[in-house]
Amino acid sequence: MVQHRCVEIAVLRISDINGRFQTLQAGHERQYIIFGDSAYKRRSHITTYAKYQNMEREAVQWNKSMKHVRISIEWNYGVTGSLFRYIRYSDKFRLLKNGRVSKIYTVATLFRNFHVALYGSQSSNYFNLEMPRDMLVNYIRGTDF
Which of helix, strand or coil describes residue 124? Predict the structure, then answer.
């Protein structure tokens, strides 16, 4: 598990996602942030759970609400791993040794999205959402649902 965390933090650093988010949003009034787990340090566009003793009610509520959202996002990775078992084998899917990892995972995620468009997902069931009948066609076209 420690090795996994080190890889995640290395990928975060290499990707410069915080800097990219900052650049993309420069000059915009509304600023979005990425929510990560507690292994990540807070940055201008990355946040995590509130961590301090004797938290105020708002911080406790923030942590509670983000925990529920984070769980639903973790389902996506689990579904992708279930549909495409290759990405679950860490010995074959080494992040820093295989330059094709991002391409493989991107394609697996795209196919997972196709699957969700056709059959729904654990997230849509949890939030009681009905998938539009033409969702896959609109997703491929890049049009609104």
Answer: helix
